[in-house]
Amino acid sequence: MSTSERENLLHIFNEQLRHFSTDTILFHQAVAERLGLNSTDHKCLDIILRNQPITAGMLSDLTGLTTGTVTGVIDRLEKAGYVFREKDPEDRRKVIIRVYTKKAEDEIMSHLESFGQSMKAMLDQYDNEQIRFLFNFFERSRGIIQTETLKLKK
Amino acid sequence: MSTSERENLLHIFNEQLRHFSTDTILFHQAVAERLGLNSTDHKCLDIILRNQPITAGMLSDLTGLTTGTVTGVIDRLEKAGYVFREKDPEDRRKVIIRVYTKKAEDEIMSHLESFGQSMKAMLDQYDNEQIRFLFNFFERSRGIIQTETLKLKK
């Protein structure tokens, strides 16, 4: 294969990744709309669920979002009835965020059920070695994405 | 490999995909913040760039977002100086959206340059057959994501 053929292949693959990220964001935006949130709020809710109890500062560190953005996210999540703020019993000066876990998980999962089934049917066509190859690709990609997100924050 | 080993593998792979989508959304949110937008606005700008001139109704169809959300997106993009509305010269009752293309492309690309270089370095370690395999996986996944986004809209 010539250099230009390789270049073409990488070009169409990069375009595919760009479209995939657009589709991913629009899907999560559609789920979020059903929950009365935007896609960033929705993903922050997921992160709070996995790390609660959490402070606004920790959420900012975990997400790479500015503290101003994080405050807006928590306000919207609180207004929509997914999370609540409370004083940290171990340090009354700190405010921690907790999730109404069952409500959040039930409502998120109800919108992801059909997606999960379709993905499962597709993945059934891949053998274990292929799944491990894909896992590795996503792991490496996540490393890059996380590093680049931190760079943007500086 | 037993059924439960296969189940475990699929479970950790699904968790990986879930984290990947979170990382993707947070990365685009970080880029969007640099541009004074949110991640949905940012991706809509990308879609308008590729399809302009476009109406709000067409943007709603392409993205799966409600017309109410689309109106807010266009308002913010207009306020940030990326797009403008004008009357369609062929049908004065229609409003079309155009992008200040150079400003949008220059500003988006300046924040994606480092990410592009890191991805390129990683992809250089994959041969053509592997890239084609990944391309196929992303293509099939996009089909599912698009179908599920439309289902959520109903």
Automatic annotation (TrEMBL), chains A, B:
InterPro entries assigned to the protein according to its UniProt record, in alphabetical order: HTH_MarR-typ, WH-like_DNA-bd_sf, WH_DNA-bd_sf
UniProt keyword annotations, A-Z: DNA-binding, Transcription, Transcription regulation
GO molecular function per UniProt: DNA binding; DNA-binding transcription factor activity
Short name of any one Pfam family annotated for the protein: MarR
Domain of life per record: Bacteria
Domain HTH marR-type: 3-143
PANTHER family: TRANSCRIPTIONAL REGULATOR, MARR (PTHR42756), TRANSCRIPTIONAL REPRESSOR OF EMRAB OPERON (PTHR42756:SF1)
Protein name: Transcriptional regulator
